[in-house]
Structure formats: C-alpha cells, structure tokens
Design a protein that fits this description.
Arc Repressor Mutant, subunit A; three-stranded antiparallel β-sheet; 10 helices; 7 strands
Amino acid sequence: MFTKTLGFIKISKNLLYNTNFLKLSNSAKILLIYLINFSNSTRNTFFFIKNTDLKNYLNLSRISIWRLSKELQIFHIKIYSKNYIYYFDLTNFYNIWNEMNCLNFYNPKNIKEIQNLKNLVYSEYLQTKHWQQVRRKQLKISDYKCQLCSKENTKLHIHHKTYENIGNEKSKDLITLCEICHKKVHNLL
C-alpha cells in the first residue's frame, strides 16, 4: 500500500518520514493515504466521497472529518462539504509534492556534477542555477516565512544547516530565515 505509485508521487519512506506527516494524528495519516489512493484509482485530483463511504471505510464521523481536514491543511488539501458529500481537492498537494521531487530537491545526473558544484567557491555556488532552483523550492516549502519567527513580507535567506550535501541538498539541510534570525543563527555558531 505504501509503495504504490500514485500519479505524481510515490507513497514511500519519503512521505512516511516527512516531518509534517509525522506530526499528523494517526487518523489524519490514514485519511491522507486513503485520499491519495482514491485519487490514484479515479485518476483525478478533485473528487467527492459520500459521508457514508467515509464512515464505512475509515470509521470517521462528520465532526472528526472536519477536525482532520484542519490537520491536512498543511499538505494544501482542500475539503468541502455539501449535503453529506465531501469534496476533496488534492491538486495543490500533487503540485507541491511534484516540485519538491519527493523531498529531494535535485537529483544530479551523475556524481561528477555534484562534485563540480562542491568544488565551487561558496559565493560562486550561490550564483548557480542549481542553487536558485533549490532556494525557490525551499521558500515555497516554508510558505515564504521565516521558520524561526514566522515573519513574512521581508527579505528571506536560505541557511545551510550543514554543508555536507552541497550540490545535492535535502530539505532537512536547509532552513528559511529572515535577515535578523539569520544573523542570530550565525552569532550562535
């Protein structure tokens, strides 16, 4: 079930170890996986499910579905209800997941390409197309907010927590910071 290919994504360890996924309640995890599987089986990102079907398959009440829908907002899943029918829109979920490339920002074609990026002076590395792509994706993941103080509408920096994976960064290697928080982080180091 967890390794089934689903349109743009593959339910695998990438989702199961995603920090946002781990924060979900068990019921929300089950609902998310159910929605992804349902979306794949119908080949649609926008679909509806009758309240009775959700009750039968997932043993969820109407109130608990709305509580779970709040949890799933972090995955940009929209849930609407009308006349005991739930409408689910997973379009943004798939788009974001696809852009994140299953949490790996960039998969260089070969080891030589990674090595070339690692050999660059850091200031030159920050000018590469690769870094610009990684930076844009990290900003999108952080919802264009500082991940420490949640400030938005300000100049944001992408800070490397580690330099071990330069040229092949993962989301866990980076953090989005405002200018003030970025200075604080560097003063602590």
